[in-house]
Amino acid sequence: MVKPDPRVILKEHNIPITIQRVKILEYLIRTNEHPTADQIYSEISDEAI
């Protein structure tokens, strides 16, 4: 299964593309749970932004 490109999704919805939004959307695409904001922050803050 091909994963959607976060940049394309943001562009299609006229949302300005920022590295933070891309990282958050990448995380949401790869997770199967419904994370809290704290969980998302914890996961992506460990990655280099």
Gross morphology is globular
Q: How far from one another are the termini?
A: 26 Å
Largest sheet: none
What is the β-strand count?
0
Tally of helical runs: 3
Compute the CA-based radius of gyration: 11 Å
Rounded mean pLDDT is 92
Summarize the structure.
This protein is mainly α.
Helices, strands, pairings?
Blueprint: H1 6-12, H2 19-30, H3 37-45
Helix pairs in contact: 2-3
Features:
57% helix; mainly alpha; 3 helices; 49 residues; globular
Task: Describe the model.
This protein has 3 helices and no strands. It has 49 residues and is mostly helical. Helices cover 57% and strands 0% of the residues. The mean pLDDT is 92. Helix 2 crosses helix 3 (37-45). 0% of the residues are buried. The chain has one domain (6-45). It starts with 5 loop residues before the first helix and ends with a helix. The radius of gyration is 11 Å and the shape is globular.
